[in-house]
Design brief:
Layout (H helix, E strand, L loop, with lengths): L14 E4 L9 E8 L5 E8 L5 E5 L6 H14 L2 H4 L2 E7 L15 H6 L10 E4 L14 E3 L2 E2 L5 H7 L7 H16 L5 H8 L7 H16 L3 E2 L4 H5 L5 E5 L6 H31 L10 E6 L13 H13 L5 E7 L8 H5 L2 E4 L5 H8 L10 H8 L5 E6 L4 E7 L15 H10 L1
Length: 433
């Protein structure tokens, strides 16, 4: 995100706040500065988070969408302790790039100084899907393997996991087994499910064997346990939890896990919101028993594809995007291909932040927004942004305004950049050969 030309980044006293016409003090995330087409920077610009948002970050590869998501996460960490404790942030990391938040951004120290800033780590908790404890996570104090409670999954979720349609013999058998175990056991394991399949008298031998094979495959993923503490491993008031799915080769498995996590969090907040409403109705002191949730999803087009139906898409689109504001759920999505996403996502996004795009179909997908309050054409504005990294068009459908801004530099290390071989590496490889 560094540029070749000199910029005026002297600190200004004005802070323009998006996302709320009546922003609450100490509830805003500092994103950057207004950007003029001559490269000069204006007042600081922030986003109020006291109300839930659906935020979409778009941009072609290498122009800052994951970097910008990292800025959101850093700013969440910089909220005051009292405010931050009201929220919890969950990051679905498909590429394994957000663990570097834990390290200061020393490589952009000079750039940070021009913004009156400095390198600083952003503490995180890590849930990973590796079968071993990766060496690169050794400095993370809070790291664990992601474990899905076997007895917490519904029969429908198990069928989605194994890509079984509801009328297949294996799906019918699996549903009967899960319902039987749920009625008689508080917790059960994959082994218990395998044993219980033999107790269904109407099941054919070949159907049982096929189901056994599927369950054995699930055992090889090392993702399931009898531990019921998935929620407590995900939700930490005032903290950021990274769910690193990069160790999984299967896109389908990444989608299913994301759907399960999102569905569990959604219904928990729905129930908690009822308690909060009751406290308000009866004039009791309002004490949220669980924090409001930010769900950040990188490579979001994998989970919300256009013209395709799936379990995870149903959970995210129907529950989180359509109904999430009432229980206090916010979503931050990043994608390099907005045209690959279901277009309903755009209609639910009240904050759209667009970095450089060049694919015509991606630009056209955004121009469908056509906000009446925006001066000029979205397509023309995207072209005017040019090739400078970190510059973006931000459209705020809450305050009904649009601006071109420059995202501030990251304080923590960005793990999503392209690798650049060093001269030392090249020489070493030559000597070895």
């Amino acid at each position: 995100m560094e540029t070749n030309h000199q910029q005026n980044t002297s600190k200004t006293t004005t802070d323009y706040i998006l996302g709320n016409s009546h922003p609450r003090p100490n509830h805003s995330l500092h994103l950057g500065r207004f950007y003029a087409l001559d490269g000069s920077l204006g007042a600081t610009i922030s986003l109020d988070i006291s109300k839930p948002h659906v935020t979409l970050i778009a941009g072609k590869r290498g122009y800052g969408k994951s970097y910008t998501m990292g800025v959101f996460l850093e700013e969440f960490n910089r909220l005051s302790k009292n405010v931050k404790s009201l929220y919890s942030c969950i990051v679905i990391d498909t590429l394994g790039i957000f663990w570097t938040l834990n390290y200061p951004n020393h490589k952009q120290k000079k750039l940070l100084s021009t913004w009156q800033s400095f390198p600083e780590q952003t503490p995180i908790s890590m849930l990973h899907t590796s079968k071993t404890d990766p060496m690169v996570f050794s400095q993370l104090k809070k790291r664990h393997r992601l474990q899905l409670p076997t007895s917490l999954l519904t029969a429908e979720q198990w069928c989605h996991l194994f890509e079984l349609s509801s009328n297949q013999p294996e799906a019918i058998l699996l549903t009967n087994v899960i319902l039987s175990l749920q009625s008689s056991e508080d917790t059960y394991s994959l082994t218990d499910i395998k044993k219980a399949a033999y107790n269904i008298p109407t099941a054919k031998k070949e159907t049982i064997q096929h189901l056994q094979n599927l369950l054995s495959q699930a055992e090889s993923w090392h993702l399931f346990s009898t531990d019921q503490n998935l929620y407590s491993s995900l939700i930490h008031p005032g903290e950021i939890t990274i769910v690193d799915l990069s160790f999984l080769e299967s896109t389908h498995l990444k989608q299913i896990i994301t759907g399960i996590i999102a569905e569990i969090l959604f219904y928990d907040r729905i129930n908690q919101r009822k308690s909060e409403e009751y406290q308000q109705i009866t004039n009791q002191q309002q004490t949220p028993s669980s924090p409001y949730i930010f769900l950040a999803i990188d490579e979001a087009h994998l989970f919300l594809p256009e013209k395709q139906s799936s379990y995870v898409k149903e959970v995210l689109l129907h529950n989180w995007l359509r109904q999430g504001r009432q229980p206090g759920l916010s979503v931050i999505m990043a994608t390099q291909r907005p045209s690959f996403m279901d277009q309903e996502v755009l209609s639910h996004s009240d904050i759209v932040l667009c970095h450089r795009l060049t694919a015509e179909e991606d630009i056209q997908s955004l121009t469908k927004l056509r906000p009446t309050y925006m001066k000029g054409d979205i397509q023309e504005t995207i072209k005017q942004i040019g090739t400078e990294k970190g510059v973006a068009l931000i459209i705020d459908d809450v305050v009904e305004t649009a601006h071109v801004i420059k995202i501030r530099p990251r304080k923590s290390w960005h793990g999503g950049g392209e690798p650049i071989p060093s001269l030392e590496t090249v020489i070493l490889e030559k000597d070895i050969s």
